[in-house]
Every structure is written in structure tokens, then in C-alpha cells.
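REQUEST FORM: STRUCTURE PREDICTION
Request ID: SP-0412
Submitted by: Lab K.M.
Chain count: 1
Length (residues): 183
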Amino acid sequence: MSDSERLKELLISRSVKTGDFTLASGKRSSYYIDARLTTMSPEGMVVIGRLGLDRLEAEQLDPDSVGGLTLGADPVAYAISHSSMSGLKPLRAFTVRKEAKVHGTGKRIEGPFVTGDRVVVIEDVITTGKSALDAASAIEEAGGSVTGVLAVVDRLEGGREAIERRGYRVMSLTTIAELGISS
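STATUS: Completed
RESULT:
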């Protein structure tokens, strides 16, 4: 079984929930993808790390680091960073806070992000694109250059288009359609 097929199995068995949900965007949905149940699992991290790294290499984005808005992006970025150690160019992973700290250094980006980094913004699930765009803005304000956005799942609800309108390339490891979900 390929990593892509295994990721879909993991998401369907662990992360896809049906019912009546209110999403972070405020939209109502008959399904919810709790990607963390997959992205934070040992097998999910291994599979996502390999798939994410393969996708970045195939797209020739050549980032220095990967990261996105906490909490959804964190395990995905860390998995890709970990997988990159077996390749030619290790990628650093970082976290973007929802708001800057009011104490200590007052940073919004935590981890080994460096001004001037070429960055791929990471997202677990794209719905409206707001989280990825918020992370991209924080990265650019800190002196990074966003080369693209990589999501584990695209809900196909306009988020990809919103991100692309801002000039970023968007990639996903799978979509709700590929998971057999209709909205």
C-alpha cells in the first residue's frame, strides 16, 4: 500500500466525523475532519512526513523551513522536518502563534525560523484559507518569503482559491473528494 493510500485510510478511520458541526470559520458542516487524530499519531507522522517532503521536492519549492498556525500545522511541520533529515537538505520547523506573546520576547513565531527563510506554510485542513493566510502574513512580517502552502486535506470549500488569489501556490496531500466525502 502506498503512503497516499495509507494516509487516506488513517484519515477516514480516525479523523472523519459525521454529524452537525460548527467549523472554525463559523460555517456549519455535516462532517468534521479532526486531522490531529491522524497527524499526532506515530504512523500518521511517519506517513505525512514522507508524503509532505516528497511533495515539496516534486514541486521544487526548495524551502528552508516549514511551519504554520498552531495547533493544526505543528505536528505536520515537525513530521516533514523529521523526514527531511534523511535527505540532502534538512528543513527547520517552527510554530506561528495566533497572537504575539505579551511577555518574554513577544515573538509570534517560535522555533528556528530565520529572517530571510524561504517557507512553505503548513496547514492540516484548508476550509476558508484564513489560517494559512494569517500564518503567511506573520511569516512575511518577520522577514520570511512564502513559497507555497501545503495542507494535509483540502475541504474544497474555497480556501485554495482564496490563498491562490494572494499569489501563493497551494498543494494538498488529499481532498475530501478523494476521501469519498461529499459536502
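NOTES: The two ends are 27 Å apart (CA to CA).
Reviewed by: T.R.
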